[in-house]
Amino acid sequence: MNSQRGIVGCLLLVCALQVSAQVKTYKYRINLRDKAETTYTLDNPSAYLSGRAMERRTKQGLPVDSTDLPVCRTYIHALAEKGAQPVSTSKWNNTVVVQVADTSVIAGIAELPFVTAVRKVWTAPDSIPARNADRKKEVTNKVTKNDHYYGDAWRQIAVHHGDSLHGAGFRGAGMQIAVIDAGYYNADEISVFKKMNLLGTRDFVNPRSDIYAENYHGMKVLSCLAANRPHVLVGTAPEAAYWLLRSEDDDTEQLVEEDYWAEALEFADSAGVDVVNTSLGYYEFDDKAMNYRYRDLDGRYSLMSHSASLAADKGMVVVCSAGNSGRGVWKKITPPGDAKNILTVGAVNRELVNADFSSVGNTTDGRIKPDVMAVGVSSAVAGTDGTVSYANGTSFASPILCGLVACFWQACPWLTARQVVEAVQNAGDRKEYPDNIFGYGIPDIWKAYQTALKKKP
């Protein structure tokens, strides 16, 4: 299951260096002034967007604009000539992340005429734990079947009447979903994924890593969507096609992870992905000076939130977790959950009572957040050994809903991404009185489908 890299040659540069124990290295985000010297043009988008991506834009009446143009190669080369190693780019934000061992070169970079801002976003940790070379030996795939077709996932699907949508033939076929997460530990060996339509994988943290030896969080998230073993575990979009993308560096908590995430999201866009799930969010970092404040939750301050809002403008539906800070000091949703025109998902238990850990809204500019709720307490997921396990968190509420959103869009292909988001909100059981805990409530996806059919052009 190798990554498919053809369509994103223009994104270049994702060559993160292995950290040397002897040399301390740093990464800086470089904001660029413009794209004046780009070799790409708006008249030839096929040079940097796949046919599927352009078809998605055309279908929704969305033009290609300057944010779609790749970062200027001449600027990237100039940064390299100053002694910095480019490791990541974001065309939407017009930024380059560079890695240096000698921080004195940054002063010279800051003086370049096309550079508008420089910010340190990563300091190499003192050590990085070794990955488990024997991980596959953990997998037993010992499961017990039960009477429910969805296995232990039946309740988390039934609360949205997702089983009715599936029963009508809409199980995600023809839809592409990108999962952006921390790693997909043992997903290549676990039986509930054997029928998964995998388009490819990509690691934006370390392209040389084994994405299946990294953190297990993404694997559990993926199982809420793509599991397809009847009477054991079936996810909410078992027939969709998947990109597995890694942007979370579990070894540290630093701002550069937002840059990785933005690049992953742009990759998904360029590949022509329809729906994105991300169960990641950041408000607190190893360097406390980088922490976010409540006033930053305006949908654009965070690099991730700005990128998520742009993704909505480019015709993708982004579904993300609200965060698990409800019990803590922060309490609020975590970026990119404050982004505009996306679906931010909070957690309820199986009795539909809100989970006390689920982060709350609203945004600084007064928008309802979270948007909707899904089961995030004792959610049925795959265990790292291939058995059925259970997990708590908005991390699992998000993909449960995300898969149903993809199936809903499959059923109603005439809708735009924004119309899909609005339809899901309007199908919430608290639509008439949304608040900062439940948002618009628990959406009835079958009701959303029936309503959309009545309004079909």
Number of strands: 15
Strand order of the largest sheet: 6-9-5-10-11-12-13
CATH topology of the largest domain: Rossmann fold
Quickly name the level 1 CATH class of the largest domain. Answer: Alpha Beta
| Major sheet attributes | 7 strands, parallel
Q: Could you list the spans in which at least 5 consecutive residues all have pLDDT below 50?
A: 1-21
Shape: globular
Structural class: alpha/beta
Protein name: Peptidase S8/S53 domain-containing protein
Organism: Phocaeicola sartorii
GO molecular function, one term: serine-type endopeptidase activity
Domain Peptidase S8/S53: 172-441
Fill in the keyword field for this structure.
single chain; 457 residues; alpha/beta; Alpha-Beta Plaits; Rossmann fold; 2 domains; 7-stranded parallel sheet; 4-stranded antiparallel sheet; 11 helices; 15 strands; 17% strand; disordered N terminus
